[in-house]
Every structure is written in structure tokens, then in C-alpha cells.
Amino acid sequence: MACMVDLIYGRGVSELIHEMPFYISIFKKYFSIKLFHAKPAMYGSVDVNNICNLHCSHCYWWLNRKNDPEDLSVDQWREIIKKTFKKQQIFVVTLVGGEPTMRPDIIELFCEEMPRRVCVVTNGTFPLKRFEDLYFYWVSLDGTEKIHDSIRGEGSYAKTKQNILNYINSGPDRHGKPLMKDIWITMTINSINYGTVDDLVKEWRGKINKIGFQFHTPFVKGDPLWLPFGDERTQVVDKLIEMRKKYPDFVINGEKQLTLMKGNWGGVGTTPVDCPSWAIISLDHMGRIKQPCCIGSADSKGLKPICEQCGLGCYSVLVAQGVKGA
């Protein structure tokens, strides 16, 4: 049955009813956290491969990447899904990489095993395949064309934009909704692109479903891409809050989450304190647990993100909802 209304994060009435057991599970976990200080995993993050076609200047993945050509097979990931994500009743899994669209077989597997609970984060430079049981695509756009290309490579913006439009116009509705509902844009704000936030919203509002913002998280002190705490960053956050109020159906970040981005909310040095890193099971391309969080590494000797300068959206949204504590 087609969904009647796009109510909650792209879910309609019929979907909400069908998925009620999952919502009951997530509410139980939330209450166990609040009442008993439990630390159940709620979400998942998976590096489905160890290769990417771009070398973006701000990307955490390249910092710890080793020249390991091996990836897990479909059957190996199926076992991990069964023994990890299903066993722990993980609500939503986000597939990242590398570039996950280079492994459509793994995306298809996750969609089959966890229908409508799989998001794919992509640079969008490959054609976006239609997966019937996908939740949605998170497409990375880091500002207007010139700025985006300075970060991700010449011609990458035009290619990504065309692939988004091709997908939206590629065929009939999915689950009773236009295909534009499948496309959410994510922008990682840094010292280069922070002035293009308005223009990006103006360009894409009405063309795709949602837009979400986070801030670049450094791995070394003095990272020139990090937008330091202070007046300039505060002004950017205030602008985002204004846009949230003006376009509440388009800008996905809440005011509490955005306000956190004005200062340190995550930890001390490279150690999580208020950040609930335990709430997301984060696996690398070989199924190994990444530490201390989804942008960390399974290698104990790998570089670690600076938690006290964290700008990640996936954890800050939980802190804004009252889920916190390492």
C-alpha cells in the first residue's frame, strides 16, 4: 500500500504502522539509557569497501587508509548483518566507504536484509541506482560548484548534480512517492565553504527532499580546514538556525543540535566524554570495529579524530536528544 503522507523523515502512515516493532525497540533503548544509564547500540555505520574514486581534501577516510585491496563478500556481510545488526535490533544502518556505490551488491544485500532502514552516503559521481528497499541516499555536496570542486576535484559537482537529476527523472514513483524524496544532501562545513551555505540551500530547495549540515572534524591540531570556535563559526551556526526556522521541512538539523556546534560538546582531546560513541556500531570494510567512532579506525595505531573539536552530525543529534556519555 502506498504511503499516505510523508510524516517522519520520509516515512508515511503505512510505513510507520508496518515498522512499529522497530520504533518500540528504539523507544525501549532510549528509556533504558535515560532511566538505567544503559548503553545499547542504536544505529550502524559500515565501510562497505576500501576504495574511492575521489581524494577529497577534507576526507577522514584517506587519513587511515591502508593499501588493502580486500573487501568482504556478500555472504560474509550477510553473516555480520545477522549476528550484529539484526541481533542487536539496530534501527538504521548507514553505508559509507570508500565510495559505497562501487559495491552495489553490498547495498542490495543490506536493503534486502534491512528494508527501508539503509542509508547510503555517496559522492554521487556514479549513476545512482534505484534500490526498491533503500531508505534514502545521502549525497555529499560541499558548497557551490567552484568551492565544491576545489575540495573534491574539478568537474565533480557537475557530475554529481547531473546524476541526482537523472535519478529523480529516471522512472515511476517509489513506494508512492516521487524519487526526489530519496535524495538528501549532506554538507560538511569547513573554513573554505562556510560562506556558500545560503547559496546551496537556494539551489536545491524544492529539487530534493532534505539537506543536513555538519562541521569538519580535524585529526590534527592546526588543521586549516577546521572552522575554529568563535564569532565567525557562531555566525554560521546562527544562520543555519535561521534557515531551519524558515525551511523546517527542508533543513533536517534541529536548533539544539546546531547550537552544540558553537563549541566543544564531544570530549577532551581524542577521548569522547559527552559523545555517545557507543550508540553507533561502526565497522570498517573487513567488519572490524572502528574506534573511537565512525570516523576512527580499527587500527589502534591509527589517527584519531579530535573529539573536543568534533562537528559530526550523527552523534551531536543524539546529544541534542539527551543521549550522551561515553
What order do the helices and strands follow? Answer: HHEHHEHEEHHEHEHHEEEH
Distance between the termini: 42 Å
Average pLDDT across residues? 91
Structural class: alpha/beta
Give the overall shape. globular
Description:
The chain has 326 residues and is of the alpha/beta class. The chain has 11 helices and 9 strands. It has a 7-stranded parallel β-sheet with strand order 6-5-4-3-2-1-9, covered by helices on one side. A two-stranded antiparallel ribbon has the order 7-8. Helix 8 links the parallel strand 5 and strand 6 (210-215). Helix 4 packs parallel to helix 5.
SSE diagram, text form:
Layout (H helix, E strand, L loop, with lengths): L12 H6 L1 H17 L6 E5 L13 H4 L9 H13 L5 E5 L7 H10 L4 E5 L13 E5 L4 H8 L3 H13 L14 E7 L7 H8 L5 E6 L15 H16 L8 H6 L6 E2 L2 E2 L7 E4 L29 H8 L6
Helix pairs in contact: 4-5
Quick structural overview:
By secondary structure, the protein is of the alpha/beta class. Mean pLDDT is 91; it is low at 1-7.
